[in-house]
Design brief:
Shape: globular
Distance between the termini: 20 Å
CATH architecture of the largest domain: Orthogonal Bundle
Low-confidence stretches: 83-87, 98-109
Number of domains: 2
Strand content: 25-35%
Radius of gyration: 15 Å
Mean pLDDT: 78
Number of strands: 5
């Protein structure tokens, strides 16, 4: 069964929180935590990496993690009229609170 867009965003958000805690476990364990197949885990990780998320894997701890702190924001896109959102538009924003990057990278789904 195919995931809806909203379900995919919820999975990305859950994955983000697990990455921040360094609590994903192995790909198989992460698939169980997210209630998806292992292939979907790799697709979700790829989605975040395509947005320049600094994701790495620790073989000793068997977990994925962020190489440095990031903040993930998922917000609806709005038109020039602030009261209207762009239909189907979502902005995913990574904010890197380090000296390396002052402003977050922006990606669109």
């Amino acid at each position: 069964m195919k995931m809806t867009f909203q379900e995919r965003l919820l999975k990305l958000d859950r994955l983000h929180h697990l990455l921040r805690r360094k609590g994903t476990g192995s790909p198989a364990e992460l698939a169980q935590r997210l209630n998806v197949c292992e292939r979907t885990v790799y697709k979700l990780l790829e989605d975040l990496r395509n947005l320049d998320a600094p994701i790495a894997y620790c073989r000793q701890r068997c977990t994925y993690y962020y190489e440095y702190d990031v903040v993930l924001q998922i917000v609806p896109l709005v038109s020039n009229d602030a009261s209207k959102s762009v239909k189907g538009g979502i902005k995913i924003d990574f904010i890197f609170p380090t000296a390396r990057m002052v402003q977050g990278e922006v990606g669109y789904l």
